[in-house]
Amino acid sequence: MKVKKAVIPAAGLGTRMLPATKTVPKEMLPLVDKPVLQYIIEEAVDSGIEDILIVTNRAKTAMDDYFDYYPELEHRLMGTGKAEQAHELRRVADMANFFYVRQRETRGLGHAIARARHFIGDEPFAVLLGDDIMMAEKPVLKQLIDAAEKYDCPCVGGQYVSDEAIGAYSSTKLRALEDRIYDVLDINEKPTPEEKLSNFAVMGRYVLTPDIFDILDATPPGRNGEIQLTDGLAALCHARRMIAVDYDARRYDTGSLRGFLEATIDFSLKNPDTGPWLREFILEKAKTL
Ligand code: UTP
C-alpha cells in the first residue's frame, strides 16, 4: 500500500480552550511562530503525503485562508526588503495540495472522518488530529506508514499511559508482533478501570483503509451522543487485521491548556531564535519561584 492522502479533522468546538477558541480555531493558535496546524501539515508532508483534506466548519475559515496565497501582502513584503518572508508565505501555501470539506454538524470524530469518503475514494489514507502535536526524530506519521506498508493493513498510533490517564483515551487489547508494533485485537473508548483492555492508548495518528467508511456510516452514536472513531476501529479490527505502533515521540494535546503551554515551552526552547534567551529567562525566573 502507498499512502499519499491525509485527512485532518479540525471541526471540533474546542470547548476546553474557551474563551480563546470562541473566534480563533484552536488549530490556528500560534505555537512559537506558526499555527498548530502548520506543524501537523509539516509532519504529513515530511511523511510523504501530497494531498491533504481538512475537515472544517463554518467558524473556521481562517484555516483555508492560511494556506491560500495573499498577493497584496506578498507584494508589500517584496517592496519593503522582506522577500524572504514573502517566499516563506508561498512555501507554506505550496507545501501540499489542500482541500476542504465542511462537517455541517458537530457529530463526533468518526462523523468528521466520514466526510472524507469522496476525497479518499479507494485508497489507504492517513488521519492526523488537528490538535495533537508531536516532537519526534522520525515523523510519527512516517513511523505508522512504514508499519502499515510492511503489514499491508490499517495501523493506529499510540503510547502507554498511566492508570489515571487511560480513562481519558481509548484502550486496546494487543498482541506483540515486533519491537513497538502490535496486532490490535480489540479497542474501547474511555474505559472505566474494569473495562480497560491495557494501558496502551490510541492517540492522534492513524493509517486507515477505505472500508472504514461503510463501518462509520453504520456506527451509531456512542459516548456523548457522538459517532466515535474508536467504535469504528473496534469493528475494523474485528473484520480484518489492524496493527498499532507505539510511536517514538513526545506528544502534546494542544487542545488542552496544559498541553498547549507545555508545547509552547518545549518548542520555544528548541527553536534557535527563541531557545537561548528563553532558557536564560526560565533559569532566572526559577530562582524566585
Ligand atoms: P477533541 O475532542 O479533541 O476536539 O476531538 P474538540 O471536540 O474540539 O474538543 P473539546 O473537548 O470541545 O475541547 C478530537 C479531534 O476531532 C475533531 C477535533 O477538531 C479534533 O481534531 N473533531 C471532533 C471534529 O472534527 N468533529 C467533531 O465533531 C468532533
Gross CATH architecture: Alpha-Beta Complex
Order of helices and strands: EEEHEHHHEHHEEHEHEEEHHEEHH
Walk across the major sheet and give the strand order.
5-4-1-6-11-8-12-10-9
Ligand catalogue: uridine 5'-triphosphate
Instruction: For the record, give the distance between the C-alpha atoms at the N and C termini, rounded to a whole number.
Output: 53 Å
SS class: alpha/beta
Uncertain parts: none
User: What summary fits the major beta sheet?
Assistant: 9 strands, mixed
**Could you tell me the mean pLDDT?**
95
Number of helices: 12
CATH superfamily membership, which one? Spore Coat Polysaccharide Biosynthesis Protein SpsA, Chain A
In the CATH scheme, the class would be Alpha Beta
Kindly give the count of domains. 1
Q: Choose one word for the global shape.
A: globular
Strand content: 15-25%
Number of strands: 13
Q: Taking Cα atoms only, what radius of gyration do you get, to the nearest Å?
A: 20 Å
The CATH topology turns out to be Spore Coat Polysaccharide Biosynthesis Protein SpsA, Chain A
Helix content: 25-40%
